[in-house]
Write a structure and sequence with these properties.
By secondary structure, the protein is of the alpha+beta class. About 15% of the residues lie in helices and about 40% in strands. It has helices at about 50-55, 100-120, 175-180, 180-195, 270-275, 335-340; strands at about 5-10, 10-15, 35-40, 65, 70-75, 85-95, 130-140, 140-150, 155-165, 170, 215, 220-225, 235-245, 245-250, 260, 265-270, 280-285, 290-295, 295-305, 305-310, 315, 325, 330-335, 345, 355-360. The chain has a six-stranded mixed β-sheet with strand order 3-6-7-8-9-10. A five-stranded antiparallel β-sheet has the order 17-18-19-20-21, with helices on one face. The chain has a four-stranded antiparallel β-sheet with strand order 1-14-25-24, with helices on one face. A hairpin with a 5-residue loop joins strand 9 and strand 10 (about 170).
Length: about 350
């Protein structure tokens, strides 16, 4: 298996997005055109028969058509002890006619859980709660973005998302879309921006996980955060956006590298990495040195047989072992690419290496 360069993503742009409540009508076209149906939420007094049906789980949180009612309604949990709530309204989606009925039911149950959890979170000072959603698609995936807004004099918005792969309609997480290093890279980008713009962020920022909310639209991968999750500013939903064409993964199979005899550190061919991540290599045969050049600037250099590497600051640093020459090609320790080229890497159980970078093309 040869090294494989993948470009699902790039330019990191952190934006604060002031979001209105998502409105219905964001319909999918093509394969999903008839798969998502809109359900409006109406406040309907609960009668004894519907109460009994709900308690025996015969009526789910939504997806029932009420006779003599103009539209659809959602049965929710009673708001006992929440007398300040005057309105529960909005719209929710429901999946229909997916190839896998169990998957369809699972997705709808997930929407149901979001709805129920939102009602459970209400305090007595909430005047209304409004639900909404939108659907997005692109690059072989589709996402449902659920949002609910609570108002108690101030508006507070919360977002939940889930993304399906068109190929098999299975739900995916961040790494399924971007590769095994995506979470590390996203957390790194957030940390870097927080250092540049500390006033935009909370003093303490929890790292995201692989299950964090995201959506894909028009070739852009967006990681979305609830209000106050990253920023102290009111009425803002934060998004980290990455252009899919600028995110690069390089996969290297076990038979394409070797381990140094001294300490078993993995030795990776310099040209393989340089080609994938837009570096030019400058080889000096007399001095037996290799330089990595990008955007006409030297990023790093190494000399065969000498354990002294340098980066953009030209300061010398030792690593686990020295560069080696094999079959006329330069091999460098795997840590060189992390230390001097700022690449993120992982090694899977079969020994396959994945290097990743989000290239800022601003």
């Amino acid at each position: 298996m040869k090294a494989k360069k993948m470009s699902p993503i790039g330019k990191a742009v952190i934006t604060a997005v002031l979001c209105a409540v998502f409105t219905a009508g964001s319909c999918l076209t093509g394969v999903f055109a008839s798969e998502i149906k809109n359900y409006k939420i109406y406040e309907i007094p609960e009668s004894q028969d519907t109460k009994e049906a709900r308690e025996t789980s015969e009526i789910k949180a939504f997806a029932e058509l009420k006779e003599n009612q103009s539209g659809y309604y959602v049965y929710g949990k009673p708001l006992d002890g929440k007398k300040g709530v005057t309105s529960v309204r909005g719209e929710l989606p429901q999946f229909r006619n997916l190839p896998d009925e169990d998957q369809c039911a699972s997705l709808n149950e997930k929407i149901n859980r979001v709805y129920i959890a939102a009602l459970d979170s209400l305090s007595s000072d909430i005047r209304y709660i409004e639900f909404g959603y939108k659907t997005t698609s692109g690059n072989g995936f589709m996402t449902v973005v659920l949002q609910y807004s609570k108002y108690s004099g101030l508006l507070e918005r919360t977002v939940d998302t889930f993304t399906l792969r068109f190929e098999d309609f299975k739900e995916v997480n961040i790494s399924d879309v971007l590769g095994p290093n995506a979470v590390k890279i996203i957390n790194k980008l957030i940390t870097q921006d927080a250092k540049r713009n500390p006033s935009k962020y909370n003093s303490s920022i929890a790292p995201i996980t692989d299950e964090h909310d995201f959506y894909i639209e028009d070739g852009v991968f967006s990681v979305i955060f609830d209000e106050y999750e990253l920023t102290p500013k009111r009425a803002e939903l934060f998004e980290l956006t990455l252009a899919l064409t600028d995110y690069i993964n390089l996969y290297i199979s076990k038979d394409e590298y070797f381990s140094a005899t001294s300490n078993k550190i993995k030795m990776i061919q310099a040209k393989q990495v340089a080609d994938a991540f837009d570096y030019s290599l400058v080889w000096n045969a007399q001095k037996q040195t290799t330089k990595f050049i990008r955007d006409e600037k030297e990023a790093a250099s190494a000399a065969i047989g000498i354990n002294a590497y340098s980066g953009r600051d030209f300061k010398s640093k030792k690593l686990e072992t020295f560069p080696q020459l094999r079959d006329g090609r330069t091999y460098l320790p795997i840590t060189f690419y992390e230390e001097f080229l700022n690449l993120v890497y992982t090694v899977d159980s079969e020994g396959r290496i994945c290097f990743s970078e989000y290239i800022d093309r601003k």
